Amino acid sequence: MSIDIRLRLQHPAFCLDTALQLPASGVTALFGPSGSGKTSLLRCIAGLEPHARGSLHLDGHCWQDDARQLFLPPHRRELGMVFQEASLFPHLDVRRNLEYGLRRSPASARPVGWQQALDLLGIGHLLERAPHKLSGGERQRVAIARGLLTSPRLLLLDEPLSALDYQRKQEILPYLERLQRELDIPVIYVSHAIEEVVRLADYMVLLDRGQVIAAGTPTDTLSRLDLPQAFADESSVVLTAQVEQIDARYRLARLAFANGQLWLPAGKLNVGNPTRVRIHARDVSITLSQHDDSSILNRLPAQIESFAPQADSGHVLIRCRVGTTPVMARITLRSFETLGIRAGQTVWLQIKAVSLV
Question: For a disulfide at 204, which of 29, 114, 270, 306, Cβ 3.0-4.6 Å?
Fold first, then answer.
C-alpha cells in the first residue's frame, strides 16, 4: 500500500515538480526551508490547487488523474487537514466543534471513534469550553481530534506547532507521538523544525525550490553524503533505543540500541520505554584509540565507511558504522588529514551525553 504522487504546479517563485511513492502508514514529514514547496505540495494533495497537473492515488483510490480527466474537489477527498492556526469555530464549544467533524461520515465508517479521539488527544475535560478559553496547544489538539473524526484516509498537518511557544510544543508533542504509535491512518506532516521531524517521522522527504532532494527514513535521508549545503548542516542519524537504567544521582539515563549503549540526560525518560535519539554529526568526534581519561561518557568503537569533504566550510562529513548502526561525524579537514582517516579504518567515536536529546 502506498501514496503515489506525481504532481506539477507552477509557483510564482519556483516550479513544484514531484514524483513520490510514500508509505500508506505512519508519519511522513515534508521538510525544507521556507519557500521550498512543502505547503504547496500539501495543498495539491488536499485538492486546493486546481491548476496542479499530474496524478494522485492513495492506496488504490484515485483522487486525481489528468489522463482520465479526473479531479476530485477537496470535499470529496477523504482527508482531514490541520493548519498552523487551529481554525476552530469561535461560536461553538469544543464538543460542538468535534461534532462538526463527525457529520462527514456515518458511525459505521469511522476508523477513529469519539472516545478514542478524546483519549488520544487528552481533551475529554475540555468539551464544554469555548475556543477562546483554550491554550494554543489545547486548540491544536482539538483541531487534530476534529480532523480525525472526519474519518479520513489521510491526515494532513501543516506546521501545526509553528505558532506555539517552546512550552506549548513540548505539551503537544507527546500526543502527536501517540498518534504515530497508535493510529493506522497515514499522516503527512509539514515542518521546517528538524527536531519535530526526527521525533515523529517514520519517513521523510527533503524539498528545495519545489524539487525532491531526498526521501527515505530519517536516518537514511539525513546520513547521505551528497546532500546540498542547506541540508548537510542537519547531517545526523536517528536511533530507536530502549531505556535500561536511570541513574538518579547523576540524572542520567542509559539507553541500549542495536549495537551499543548511550548515556544522556534522563529528563522524563522511564525504564523500559522505547525512545528516539538523534545523534548530530557535529556532536561526534573521532579518536584513533580509546580514551578513558575523558569527560565524554559515550565512546563507541566504529569503522569508517565513507566520507565527503565540504569544500565551502573546510569540514569533512564522515559516515561510520557502529556494528550495523550508521553514525555520522563532522570534523575539520585539518583533523581529517592529521588522523589519516581512510575507508575501512577502525576508530573510536566520542559523543557528549549533554548533546543528546
Answer: 29
